[in-house]
Amino acid sequence: MDSLNKKRHFFSRFLLFQGSVLESELQRFVPPNVSADDFLEETRKKLKLVGLDCIKRLCEDTGCLHYVLVNTSSGKHLKSNSLYSAAEYELFKNILTEIVTGENTGVASSIKVLNSTSSMIKKMNKADADKAILKFVSDGWIAKNSKGEITLTPRGVGEFKSVLESQLKEYIADCHLCKDIVVKGGLCNSCGVKFHWPCFQKFSRNDAHNCPSCRLGIDSSRDSQNSSVKHLKSNASQNTQESHKNASQISFLSQSNHESSENDSQISNVSRSRHISRSNVSHNSSASKSQQESRKNVSQVSSLNQKKTPRKRIQEVESDSSD
Q: pLDDT digit string (tens) for 83-120?
């Protein structure tokens, strides 16, 4: 094996072990009398024979170019790697989804990722999930900072580009400047184009922070754009809470009206009962009065009868005397 082939072989083994190489570091593998493009072209031919490739990817944070190793076998990617279990593969899918669709575009919260294990088909506890995340970091798919924020590395973006474009295409767009896929980048609120921050910073040196598409002013601060997105989501959440509060107040008023109607009905029933009671009392009083009058009449008749009896006897005596 000649010196050039030895260099290519050494570079291929390093790439297989490391996963990516900075463009600035490539020169230490390339012999002085060989161009970097020729060196890479021959290396790629060897890698493609085993279903691999070496492609150039931009780091979306630093803007540095990397040469990364990717799998060219369709549909395999991480799943074909025997180093990962089915649960670990499912966890990585959760990480990928959170990075692309989460609140902070391009960044996943490690806490949310760990909490997602409770809904996984392949069960995994949080301790094992934390170990799996460190494993993904060590293998160069993702990066994790001291704040617990997880991002895709250049190798991760290159490896899962086809997955992102096919399964999460509504969240993915190409950079308006370099025409490559954007996972973590900026957005123009006026025309909606997306771009890598490093690409925009290079462009804005000559165009005073104007959108590369519509030419309107754009805030180049990443924190400002994230704050604006969070502000919109906060307003939406606040509107939802106010809506629920209004609905609760309406329900309370409706219940109060219903209770008031019930109270009015009860008062009406009580009033009616009192009226009936008074009527019954009046009726009983009239009946009692009638009974008293009846008894008085009977007493008067009896008294008359008693008065008439002596007279009748006198008449009878007188009649007997005359005889």
A: 899 999 999 999 999 999 988 889 999 999 999 999 99
- At residue 73 the predicted structure's pLDDT band, cuts being 50, 70 and 90, is confident
Phi, psi of 166 (to 5 degrees): -95, -40
Sequence-distant contacts of 109-118: CB under 8 A, at least 24 apart: 109/148, 109/149, 109/150, 110/144, 110/148, 110/149, 110/150, 111/148, 113/150, 116/91, 117/91
| Percent with pLDDT over 90 in the chain | 42
Mean pLDDT confidence for 24-36: 89
> What is the distance of C-alpha 49 from the center of its chain?
45
pLDDT digit string, tens, across residues 228-265: 434 333 443 444 444 444 444 434 434 544 444 454 45
Across the range 276-286, mean pLDDT stands at 49
**HEC states along the chain?**
CCHHHHHHHHHHHHHHHHCEEEHHHHHHCCCCCCCHHHHHHHHHHHHHCCCEEEEEEECCCCCCEEEEEEECCCCCHHHHCCCCCHHHHHHHHHHHHHHHHCCCCCCEEHHHHHHHHHHCCCCCCHHHHHHHHHHHHHCCCEEECCCCEEEECHHHHHHCHHHHHHHCHHHCEECCCCCCEECCCEECCCCCCEECHHHHHHHHHHHCCECCCCCCECCCCHHHHHHHHHHHHHHHHHHHHHHHHHHHHHHHHHHHHHHHHHHHHHHHHHHHHHHHHHHHHHHHHHHHHHHHHHHHHHHHHHHHHHHHHHHHHHHHHHHHHHC
Angstrom distance (rounded) from CA 280 to CA 277: 5
